[in-house]
Amino acid sequence: xxxVMGIFLLFLLSFCQLQGSPSTxxxxxTAEKYIEYKKRNGHIQNFIPPKIVIVxxxxxTLKYLLEKMPxxxxxxxxxxxxxxxxxxxxxxxxxxxGAPALSVKMEQLIALGVKKFIAxxxxxxxxxxxxxxxxxxxxxxxxxxxxAHLYLKGESYAEADAELFSQWSAFxxxxxxxxxxxxxxWSFPALFRETPADVKRVTDQGYDVVEMEAATLYAIGxxxxxxxxxxxxxSDSITFVEWTPHIKEAEVRNNLHKLADLSIDFGRENMKMMxxxxxxxxxxxxxxx
Length: 289
Hints:
By secondary structure, the protein is an alpha/beta fold. It has one domain: Nucleoside phosphorylase domain (Rossmann fold, 3-Layer(aba) Sandwich). 38% of the residues lie in helices and 22% in strands. The chain has helices spanning 2-18, 31-40, 59-68, 99-111, 162-174, 196-204, 214-224, 250-276; strands at residues 52-56, 73-74, 81-84, 89-92, 116-126, 135-143, 157-159, 180-187, 209-211, 227-238, 243-245. The chain has a 5-stranded mixed barrel, surrounded by 4 helices. Helix 2 (31-40) packs across helix 4 (99-111) and helix 4 (99-111) packs parallel to helix 7 (214-224). The radius of gyration is 22 Å and the shape is globular.
């Protein structure tokens, strides 16, 4: 009797699946559902998505921009989002740290229509492969941050958007701005759990800087079909035996502020290109050293 009942239940389950029952692998809660809920409750009204959002990982970067641009106004719909240039450029800052917090904010903004993200922050150089204070553009990121793997389909890393990378490279090159070194980032979630074995493992794979969010930024961008790019200033050094911080030093702080300024300038230039349709000067630099 138990065998017959088991066969019947298996048949019933298969029949329900054929009749269009919800997939057991699809997310139950989505950003789209959450945004619709907020709209129904009047928390989001007449929101026009910025053309590009600058993601600030350090609180000091947001403070610097707020002091420099007093017209930077907080969004009435999205906490921790500030708007400039008539709302065409957004600055996301003060939202916390780590990939989980980033994923929540990024998914909501994408659900509202944002298509481009430039992230600016600090990273540690592994085995002193980059000088302190140097500017870094992350071409890819290893998905060990606890979130990125949920968006990737069996891949161990996520890559920067090639078109946005090329546009940034052309923007920097034509204006004689500081040179940016290309790097592969190790996105890792636990600040106080990086071991010598981990450092050897990831450097053997070609990863030369460490941070916490780039893989999630790139993985979500890829899944959702939006453009994402991550830029860093090297603020500390990690070897097999020690950590050497330079986070509070003037060079690091000033270069991080300069990186924020460059990102705002790039956003404005990018909007001009979108308006005029003139992209002839944008040449592909992805993969160059």
